[in-house]
Amino acid sequence: MAGNASGSCAEQHYRRRGFCLDSGAWRRAQGHENQALSGLKIDAPKKQFAVCIDNTDYAASLIVRKIYEVLPDEEAAKNEFLRVIDESGEDYLYHRSHFVLVEFPAEIEHALTTA
Q1: How far apart are CA 57 and CA 60, in angstroms?
Q2: CB half-sphere exposure, 72, CA atoms < 13 A
Q3: Which of 56, 82, 106, 109 has its CA 20 to 30 A from that of 43?
Q4: What pTM did the predictor assign?
Q5: Total of domains in the chain
């Protein structure tokens, strides 16, 4: 298998002595991902919300005491930023110090996401 560029993730890991180098885009194009499985229920990721506590320098974009939806962004979180859907209706990065993350019961979360 020395000349074969394909192979399982484990084979590629062994050959490269590092992280698996399988390409997600390539695998999807080949039909190896996103295939339906009957009877499998996949829960949507839980929505996250934050209350604005400081809109200094962002008065047009953030309203103090308003609840905002927070989108997942692992890279931003590493640097203490949140990706928030602000007053423009678009998502932007804001420093975490402008918000307090909050959790709500399911019925309130549903009302916030369907309003």
Answers
A1: 9
A2: 4
A3: 82
A4: 0.61
A5: 2
Q: Which domain holds residue 23?
A: 1-41
Token couple for 6:
């394909």
Same domain, yes or no: 52 and 96? yes
CA 53 to chain centre: 23
Q: Which residue has the tokens 């604005």?
A: 52
How does DSSP assign 7-55, residue by residue? Answer: --HHHHHHHHTSS----HHHHHHTT-SS---TT---PPPPPEEEEE---
User: Per-block average pLDDT, block size 10, for the chain (115 residues)?
Assistant: 45 37 43 54 78 97 97 96 97 98 91 81
Residue 80 identity (one-letter amino acid): E
